[in-house]
Amino acid sequence: MPVDGLWLSFSVLGPLHYLTQMSWLHDRSYFFRDPLPKKIFVPAAAVAAGFYIYAAIEPSGLFESACAILAVFLLPAFMRTPKTLRLGVAAAAFLAVLLCVSPLAALFAGVFLPTVVHVGLFTLLFLLTGALRGNSIASYISALAWIVAAVSLFLLPPSGHLLAGDWAKPPRIFWTGLAEGFGWVFSIKPSTVFPFLTFAYTYHFLNWFTKTELLKWHLVPPRRQAAIGVILAVTLAACLYDYQFGYMTLLLPLSIMHVLLEFPLDMQVILGLPALVTAKIAKAHGPAR
Known about the structure:
There is one protein chain. This protein is mainly α and 289 residues long. It has one domain (4-272). Helices cover 83% and strands 0% of the residues. The chain has helices at 4-27, 35-57, 62-78, 82-101, 103-134, 137-155, 169-186, 190-209, 212-215, 222-241, 243-261, 263-285.
């Protein structure tokens, strides 16, 4: 399951998550208050997705992909005011140089940010934000359980070799590079990374589908529901016919576009989390009334 489960989660649960989340983000203007940032951001995300797919085909394009993805990730934070926009241009120039001279930085921005960081770190930040806002014991337990599960997968790695069924071998090649890169950075075996990837992706997808009060599935327009169903069916059919073809033409583009379009929401959570923590500490140490 550490190998087959990852393929099942990414290929079956993944496209449904991508399509429904992009629909939800569109209804909320991708979390931009003004129309101008939205008009700039969405095309920029499409261009960055193109660079990412190019890098997936031609590894020599990793630097261009890393620059594009990192720029789109930082864009929501720097488009708030003209002053922050100027700071953003300076920061982008500095980071471009850093990506050029540091293979590790390029690997992080071009490979880890839209994959492991997105489904791992950002999911945890959302759990922590929900716990701090809701202030319920269940929310804190949920966040703590995620941390315990993720850490346990690294502290208690598989004792043998990971095997994949014949039907799961073709898609495995697309994850081996990610596992090897993660293992190279943290000096662990790729076989230890696969269980974490399976857990992180599966949790990320299922956690999304359980947000019924937030997402209001029953209010999605019928035509959009039908469109989502058709695109999902075509994606699954293409993957069953030829996984490499379905992966490169539908599955990967949908995956990276949903990641990039979610960056404004991610940035909003990242920038808002310190204030929530500070308010919680101040409330805990404030004068009793």
